[in-house]
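Dock zinc ion; give full complex structure.
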Amino acid sequence: MKFAIIGGTHGNEPVGIKTIEKILAENKETLNSYKTFLGNPKAYDLKKRYVDSDLNRAFGPNGSSKGYEKKRSSELTDLIKDKFDFILDLHTTTSNMKFTVILTRIDEFSLKAACFLQKQIPSLKIIVSLRAGNDCPYTSSLANSALTVEFGPVINNVEDDKLIKTMFELTTKLLDYDFGEEFNYEDIECYQVFGIQSYPDQGQWEIHKDIDGHDFDPITYGNPMFCNDSDEIITYKGPNTIYPLFVNEAAYQENNTAMEMSLKTTLANALFKLK
Ligand SMILES: [Zn+2]
C-alpha cells in the first residue's frame, strides 16, 4: 500500500505536523511506503485554521473553496490523486474527544485500518462520518481508502507532546500493517454521526455543563442540553439515546454548530444503514 500522510490540513493543528516531522526524523523502513504532506503551509505560518476557506471542504465533486485554499487544494490533488492507495489525515480538536478515527470511506482497507488501530489502543473510538460512503469534500476523497485521525482536547496551536507521541505510535504501526487480519464488524463498536446540533435560534445559549466536555456520554430524553444566564434550560426531547461528538469545538462556532450527534452501534450495523 502507498500511504499519503497529511498533517496541518488545518494550520492551527500542529500535532499532526510534529508527528510527521518525527516520522521523517526516524526515517524507519516500513512495510507500506509513504510520503508526507504539509496540508496548508500558509495557514500553518499564520497559525490559523485556514486562510480563505476550510481546506478540508475543498476536495472532490462536492468540494468548495476560494482564494489560497482553491490553489492549494488543486496542488494537493495533482500531488496525491491516483498516486496513493491510502490517505491518513492527522487532526486535533479542542473538544474532549480523546483518541478517535473517523471513517469517511467504507472500503475494506479503511475499515481494517480503523479496527487495527483500535486494537492498538482499545479506548480509541471509531466514528462513521455523516458523509461516509458518499463523495465527501475532505482530503479522504484523494484516494480509495482513508482515515482521519482526531485527537483532543488540545488548544489550537499547542504542540501537545503526549498526543504527538501517541499519534506517532499509531501512524507507524499502521505503516507496518499488512491488512491481512480479518475483523468481525458485528463485534466492533462505533459512533455513527446522523446530524448536527446547532445552538438555539433565539437568545444567547451555552452548552450545558453536563454535556460540555462530555463527548461520547449518552444523552437521553429530558437531559439538559443548553442553558442561559437566567438559568433557563433546554432539554433533549428526542426518542433515541444519542452520543454527542465535537462538543463546543472551537472551529464549529463560526457555523453556529454546538456539537455533532451520533448513535452508538456496531460497524456491521452502520455499514448496513449506509447501503
Ligand atoms: Zn482539523
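Observed: The chain has two domains: 2-183, 194-261.
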